[in-house]
Design brief:
Length: 138
């Protein structure tokens, strides 16, 4: 039986800077002004966002499922046999994707998730080995 294959989320550095720099600057400012409540909120926000960035990945399991993990709170298991279509997108729709270089994954009866795996071609090939009927518009 095949092993689970993990694909980390591609990270868009400019997007990460837009997210993290203001929070870090706010944390430094609130600490320097000794506004402890605001500093605690900034610190917790920084911890939460860091956890999102460090634990967002996509796994192709031995059971032939695609597991989409978006940080510590979002997890979805999709049978690869149920995936209908993959489409390249740069949508700003929310999803467990840390880059604007995204894939729109449509499955079941119109459900979808937006992801951004590193090694996108390898990821698509791995899905196609399990379900060669996936329509590709990437």
């Amino acid at each position: 039986m095949a092993q689970t294959k993990i694909y980390r989320s591609k990270v868009n550095i400019p997007l990460a800077l837009v997210v993290f720099v203001p929070i870090i600057a706010g944390l430094i400012l609130t600490l320097s002004e000794r506004t402890w409540g605001a500093a605690a909120i900034m610190g917790l926000t920084l911890v939460f966002l860091s956890a999102m960035y460090l634990t967002t990945f996509y796994a192709i399991t031995a059971e032939q499922d695609l597991v989409v993990r978006g940080g510590p709170f979002i997890s979805r298991r999709i049978p690869i046999a149920n995936i209908n279509r993959l489409q390249k997108t740069r949508t700003i729709l929310a999803g467990p994707a840390l880059s604007m270089d995204r894939l729109y994954v449509q499955f079941d009866q119109g459900d979808a998730v937006v992801i951004s795996p590193v090694r996108k071609s390898e990821f698509i090939d791995a899905l196609l080995k399990i379900n060669p009927n996936i329509e590709i518009n990437a």
